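Database export, one record per block. Field names are fixed; values are copied verbatim from the stored entry.
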Amino acid sequence: MSDGDDSDAFASWLRLREPADAAARAADLLAPVRRRLAGDGPVVIHDLGAGTGSMGRWLAPRLSGPQHWVLYDRDPGLLERARAAMAGLATEGGGDVTVETRRADITRLSAADLADASLVTASALLDMLTAEEVERIVAVCAARPCLFTLSVVGRVELTPTDPLDAEVAAAFDDHQRRVAAGRGALLGPDAVAACLAAFARHGVDVRTRPSPWRLGPDRAELTAEWFTGWLGAAREQRPELTTRTTEYGRVRRAAARAGRLGVLVDHCDLLTGCG
């Protein structure tokens, strides 16, 4: 979900992370999704905060039968990229995939907006929301199957380790929980727990699975970009870290670019309504 302030840069970041996202998603949740969607009619999937459409590119070929995807985002530039990038996709067995886009604030959708949804999806979204926004989304999605993937849970491991890693990680988590103007405090690593509690209040059971990024030499560019953003957010949250992490940052970035820095960023995938 883009804030729309720098669509090109955000789209570039999404392209860079897409292979790692695809490798991380919990593939064992696909079987219950397939069983739930099996039938004679076309499948309609509503994708919240679709960005450039990476969820559709990952999921559509793994499901059978014709599919219609409805993509939501606030950024029209991202939606146009998503529409173009999903053109020509085929489902498992060769079914057609059609796409429509809707520019919208996903936290203000109604149950009527999702009335025809066979499945509601989202990727790397929940941790960018406030508790109130999660409550609203769960309320309109509770009656439908949902697959929400790649929510951060606040666990990061760097290899080799450094004494500053834990302090930077804690500052980053605090930045994830920052107060967004006009919205309130973001949930960051607390989002999964908040979402589970919200579904429980609606009487909905949720399956959870770990979906960690495991970044190594084969993803050196992503590792370096991720580390730069991770450290930058920590410094923004705690400016006193800036001087103390100057050498740390230089060494870590060099190691990342050279493929010598291993990173695990833990996430969680959630599935509802699929038996």
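Remark 1: The chain is about 40% helix and 25% strand.
Remark 2: The first strand starts at residue 43 and ends at 48.
End of record.
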